[in-house]
Amino acid sequence: MVNAVAGSLLTCSDAATLQYVLFLENEGSLGKSFVYQKLDETHLFVDSAYVDQILAKIDEFSDRNAYELDRGNNSKDSAKPNKAKR
């Protein structure tokens, strides 16, 4: 017997992003299980109802962990956090 499930293919830019989505799944931060299947290192089959929320969480995480090079400073190693707009 065949079981069919409607969902969406989520393609992550890298394995680290996929691991973050799996962390969200294990943490239960979206309130319900949303990952149906891990397909490979950059693809997940997920519940379509949660795609926008997943993408928003990835954007928030990226904003918190992104750094910009301070080009006004002469130091080559100068970097500062990229502050997310609220």
From TrEMBL:
CC annotations in GO: transcription factor TFIIH core complex; transcription factor TFIIH holo complex
Family matches, as Pfam families: Tfb5 (PF06331)
Keyword Zinc-finger: no
Coarse class of the protein's main subcellular location: nucleus
Claim: RNA-binding is one of the keywords in the record: no
Subcellular location: Nucleus
Gene3D superfamilies in the record: TFB5-like
Signal peptide: none
GO biological process, one term: nucleotide-excision repair, preincision complex assembly
Keywords linked to the UniProt accession: DNA damage, DNA repair, Nucleus, Transcription, Transcription regulation
Its biological purpose: In NER, TFIIH acts by opening DNA around the lesion to allow the excision of the damaged oligonucleotide and its replacement by a new DNA fragment. In transcription, TFIIH has an essential role in transcription initiation. When the pre-initiation complex (PIC) has been established, TFIIH is required for promoter opening and promoter escape.
Family, as annotated: Belongs to the TFB5 family.
PANTHER family according to UniProt: GENERAL TRANSCRIPTION FACTOR IIH SUBUNIT 5
Subunit structure: Component of the 7-subunit TFIIH core complex.
Name of the protein: General transcription and DNA repair factor IIH subunit TFB5
Organism per entry: Hondaea fermentalgiana
